[in-house]
Amino acid sequence: MAEEKKSKQRHRVMVFESMYPILALMLILVACVELCDAATVVDVYRLIQYDISGVPFGSRFSSLNHHAASLSFQRGADLSRSVLILPLRELDIAFVQDYISQKQSLGGLLILLPQTFRPGNVGGGSLSSENDGFRSLLGQLEKLLVHGNVPFPVYFAFENEETDAMLADVKKNDALGQQATATTGGYKLVISVSEPRKIASPTITNIQGWLPGLRAEGDSSQLPTIAVVASYDTFGAAPALSVGSDSNGSGVVALLEVARLFSVLYSNPKTRGKYNLLFALTSGGPYNYEGTQKWLKSLDQRMRESIDYAICLNSVGSWDSELLIHVSKPPDNAYIKQIFEGFSNVAEDLGFQVALKHKKINISNSRVAWEHEQFSRLRVTAATISELSTPPELLENAGSLSDTRQLVNEDAIIKGVKLVAESLAKHIYGHQGKEIKIFADDSSLAVNPFYVRSWLDLLSQTPRVAPFLSKNEPLIMALKKELEDYTAEVSVQHESLDGSFTFYDSTKASLNIYQVASVTFDLLLLLVLGSYLIVLFSFLVITTRGLDDLISLFRRPPSRKVKMG
């Protein structure tokens, strides 16, 4: 019995001893898990990268692997191993300008935007004064980044709980005056993407629809044509965010609704006018209206010469009481006077005003300010209707980060649609000067607010930077189908973008945010774990083999003499 009891005790001791290494391993694993927090993943949007005639613009890099830093450091500090986190509400333009213009070292720049500017956010047509200030600040930042050669990665993201918490911690650490490093710990921001590649043969796509007028029986003469045109693509600092709700989503929506209204009139021979109506959605607007130029030159000469006049729609979604009609021909031109008078009378009936603005074109300069100038170059009478008093500069105000759904008032678009539709109808049917409303609100030809809102919401969620749109892009197919529903002989034209422009891919990525401990802490923990394992090992050896065996492990073994034969 005594022998059996001793045997059981030895067995229990052996089982207990065998658990020590397992417990030690578990403790090590728990410690490691606590040191390596799971990464927070945030969607980020890269600053555009492009060349004009070989001259580089935008951000030239895409990968990130640096610690986070805030604006707590003095201007000019060496942040070559840091990613500067810069909320728009704390933006210091001069600070950013110094790092770009003076080529100072910066590991990367992460700009945090308010959720207000997230594409697809639906709100009213009015913005708070705070957001108006943000829009102005963001416009300055975009201009600086888009037209500069930025020697570090730049990304945009939207503020959320994770980014706010990270930034608060980073500010606390930076307030001590010491940058986050592998020694001090902090947050590490990692974006692992391949180097940007050139987009081969970027294309621009024009879409054309046609409503033929009513020709008298036996009349073989060419009917006059009125063209309604809007450029649908955008350009902005971040291609993946460039939705251009106002510029020029509003113009596209207005064109589609005008086409829908006239399709009803033209579907009945009794109400079909003796004018052809030509609707064109053009691409390449930000690039000197290149798509419009190529579309016009592709038209049959007889067709082009039949155009009585063209109305181009540009940014008609954010105005209150006045729209501007921009023309290239002198205001005292008899036909310009007639067109303006027709629009002015309709605007007065609708309760607002239109004003005429003249800008002479320079034939020797290939640069055009407005879309209608491409028509004027071919001696076709044309005008641009817009809320803008001055034309946007090249690659500016064509879908900026602040041009989102909340900027646009759909009621403004509806008023613009009524202005264009009523003015064209009075011209087509000879009702000038008559108090007749063809598209009255209580009629079957009333403007459809739901249709306007639906298309505006869709465009406000869809980035449309031409070089990043494929020929079979869902949006292009949707626009083509919409024109097919309301017009005839719809055609699509694909053209190569001007070779002087070169664009690079990699517009969107995932940012991994890691909270890392300092090396000092790691070494201290390693020392504690090592000491614990040594003590544990010594205890196990003493209890199982005795103190003599433990000491013998650390003795130097006696040297052996080698016998020489």
TrEMBL record:
Protein localization: Endoplasmic reticulum membrane
Q: Which CDD domains match?
A: M28_nicalin_like
TM regions (residue ranges)? 523-547
Q: Which Gene3D superfamilies match?
A: Zn peptidases
User: Is Signal there in the keyword field?
Assistant: yes
What GO CC annotations are associated with the protein? endoplasmic reticulum membrane
Q: By its UniProt entry, which InterPro entries does this protein fall under?
A: EF_Hand_1_Ca_BS, Nicalin
Superkingdom field: Eukaryota
- SUPFAM superfamilies (alphabetical): Zn-dependent exopeptidases
Example GO biological process? regulation of signal transduction
Q: How does the protein's chain sit in the membrane according to the entry? A: Single-pass membrane protein
**Which Pfam families does its entry note?**
Nicastrin
Cite the entry's keywords alphabetically.
Endoplasmic reticulum, Glycoprotein, Membrane, Signal, Transmembrane, Transmembrane helix
Q: State the family named in the UniProt similarity comment for this chain.
A: Belongs to the nicastrin family.
Official protein name in the record: Nicalin
